[in-house]
Amino acid sequence: MILTQCAVCAAELGLSLGKKCGRCSTRYCGPECQKQHWEGGGHDKICKLIKKAGGAEAYNANKKYTAAVAVAATACAEDTKGQTCYICTQALHWKTKEGLVRGCSCRGTAGFAHVSCLAEEAKILYDEAEENNLDNKVLNERFGRWHTCSLCEQNYHGVVECALGWACWKTYVGRPETDWARKFAMTLLANGLSAVDHHEDSLHVQEAELSMRRRLGASEGDLLVVQGNLAGTYNQLGRHEEALSIKRDVYFGCLRLNGEEHEATIIEALNYAMTLASLQRFEEARSLLRKTIPVVRRSRGENSENTLRMRGLYATAVYLDEGATLDDLREAVTTLEETERTARRVLGGAHPLTTLTEGHLGLAREALRTRESTGDVESLREAVEAMTPPGDA
């Protein structure tokens, strides 16, 4: 997580409170904790190292990044065995000696890379756009390389998304708070932490980001995006009622500002529906999705990830509803079968959405069999409580 707590007592300091070490900027709630850390906490031995690394925030980001890369390489070791990086053409990174990863939708022998190579490539492309004063559209496209594979054009996920989140934050943390890349690096870091279920850490980053953007006078649209991400993390932590209130406001805010076909509106409609489903307000979720699925199909196509998420979530809200008829359950199974096939073809069998949809398909089929034989699906509810509906964006 980013550093918004006292290094000794963990008191919450936000982004501006407390006292900093004059040399390395390590943060404390006051002089007593600072003195304790220097005299008995070992800070006297690492203060110069922290300063050399660029300060406390950069030092922390470097440590977290290194750990995240090691986790990602270990998790991908079986998949990457015998392969080489498509960027540097080596199996082991020449400098860091890190192993390969692949956390996108590439298949066969495509997409293997080192996190360091992916990060360096993203940095070079974005730096080039900045140096040449290219327009915002190009800057956004170049920055997208931090989270989207250039080969399959799908988002990274899981441990690779987390490692790239730390890589991005490590790269831009030294810039001023007002810098665009630094602000969006916080967003990518929070998303990466959520991707590996570190939701408390992600919440910590998102709260700090929202506080910073408010203090800097961010636009309503930017604030809505951050609030939407924050509510998604509330959902992951089981704080569904808190999430619902925010999600409702964010969705209608995006709809008013951007219109129904804007990417932000589509994502927030999906997240709002997911929150409704989490609270078992299935009819409300289906009503919203019936309005938005035609929009996303028309504007993004049948194969887009958000189309697949919406269709999967709609079918999930159907089969979990106690009031679903036999025809409803059959429709849910058919929809999940179509969604799973498309997700497997477009995203690959290892993608989280594919595996999640496959799980819900099995439960929907069981619900249909149970209803046909006994008319009761209550026994399935415990099986799905631990599962995330396919709408989580």
UniProtKB/TrEMBL annotation:
Organism: Pelagomonas calceolata
Residue ranges constituting the MYND-type domain according to the UniProt record: 6-47
Protein name per the record: MYND-type domain-containing protein
Cited PROSITE patterns: ZF_MYND_2 (PS50865)
InterPro entries registered for this protein in UniProt: TPR-like_helical_dom_sf, Znf_MYND, Znf_RING-CH, Znf_RING/FYVE/PHD
Molecular function in Gene Ontology: zinc ion binding
Top-level division of the source organism's lineage: Eukaryota
Keywords from the named record: Metal-binding, Zinc, Zinc-finger
Upper lineage: Eukaryota, Sar, Stramenopiles, Ochrophyta, Pelagophyceae
